[in-house]
Amino acid sequence: MPFRLFQRGNQTPRYIQELGEFLPGAIMVMLVVYCLRNVTWLSGNHGWPDLTACTITILVHLKWRSLFALMIIGTTAYILMVNFVF
């Protein structure tokens, strides 16, 4: 169906182009909320591994803007902190 709607000769509708600009950021926000939803902020280690891993991931993104580096370094930072630091 989408291949019929958006053939090479047809112009892509404006709302589809706007969704392409808006949705990646919205999906990332939903993923962050989903990952942090079960963090116990008032007991235990107060979510420090989660916040530290998020901060490291943001800094890596600002420095390199590489999705592969974000996934590897952010996940490794979180796993190391949960197992060895906190």
What secondary-structure arrangement, pairings included, does this model have?
Blueprint: H1 2-5, H2 14-36, H3 48-64, H4 67-85
Helix pairs in contact: 3-4
Properties at a glance:
single chain, 86 residues, mainly alpha, 4 helices, 73% helix
Report, as a whole number of angstroms, the end-to-end distance: 51 Å
The helix tally amounts to 4
> In percent, how helical is the residue content?
over 70%
* Helix-strand category: mainly alpha
Strand content: under 5%
Specify Rg, calculated over alpha carbons: 19 Å
Task: Label the overall shape.
Answer: elongated
Based on DSSP secondary structure assignment, what is the total number of beta strands?
0
Q: Provide the low-confidence segments as ranges.
A: none
How confident overall, as mean pLDDT? 89
Largest β sheet strand count, sense and barrel closure? none
What sequence of helices (H) and strands (E) makes up the elements?
Answer: HHHH
Structural account:
By secondary structure, the protein is mainly alpha-helical. Helix 3 packs antiparallel against helix 4. The longest helix is centred in the N-terminal third of the chain and has 23 residues. The mean pLDDT is 89.
Would you kindly provide a brief summary of this structure?
By secondary structure, the protein is an all-alpha fold. It has helices at residues 2-5, 14-36, 48-64, 67-85. The longest helix is centred in the N-terminal third of the chain and has 23 residues, at 14-36.
